[in-house]
Amino acid sequence: MSGKSSASEDSIALLAHRLQTLIDDGIKINPATANPAPLGLFGFALTTSLFTGASAGLVEGDTTQMAMGFGFFFGGLAQFVAGILEYQRRNTFGTVAFCTYGAFWMSLAIYTTLVAGGVYEEAPTKGSQLLLTLWGILTFIFWLCTFHTNLVTCWLFFSLALLFWFLAGGVGGENGDARSTLTKFAGGWGFMVTATSFYAGTAALMKDVYGKDILPVFPLKPVNNVSLGDFGTKRIIDLEEQSLEEQNRKGS
């Protein structure tokens, strides 16, 4: 009897600890807010696809103006809102990432509009190269913070950093030269990046809708007991809790 009583007390303690962990981490049994990650990932993916389509030469004419239109709202505002909602879920990484790229698209859209309207002069080649290089560096820093997420998210940020650097290297190219070739390659690479973002957003959305993993994202191991296996859901993993759970399984 004492053994059963002890196992029951351990189970109750484990349940109470789990609930407290979820509350402390800003996650309840039924989260107070929806997962904003799909919105941010789709906004980024679609707008970037329009932007890189012109670089890749897959469509006739220049789709940059269309991309800038989406950059104001879907790529910009929607991503920024997703970042604010990540803040409510106490997800610092999601907040900073979505707000950063949302602000990037809105800034790029307003700059392009002002240049087209003759308010600003177009930046020189080296200025554009500096801008894209710096964004590549910032994205690389984000990538360094993805080792507790999943392989899809990790690859998304690494490939995006490379995309910025490819675009920087292709600025100022003319038809037939090495820079123009690099720009076309960057356009094709950009479609791969956006496909990854579409996949990540779809995986997160389907998991929330159907309540289980439909598309695998291959979660990585927690780092310092913190896991962001799902982009919009941060969890603190208690190793002692896992050990106790395994013991209870063996005991049953």
From TrEMBL:
An example molecular function term from Gene Ontology annotations: acetate:proton symporter activity
A biological-process GO annotation: succinate transmembrane transport
Transmembrane parts of this sequence: 39-59, 65-85, 92-116, 128-147, 154-173, 185-206
Keywords, alphabetical: Membrane, Transmembrane, Transmembrane helix
Superkingdom of source: Eukaryota
Membrane topology per record: Multi-pass membrane protein
Compartment list: Membrane
UniProt keyword annotation of Transmembrane present: yes
Keyword hit for Transmembrane helix: yes
GO cellular component, one term: plasma membrane
The family this protein is said to belong to: Belongs to the acetate uptake transporter (AceTr) (TC 2.A.96) family.
Annotated NCBIfam families: AceTr_1
Protein name: GPR1/FUN34/yaaH family protein
Organism: Chlorella vulgaris
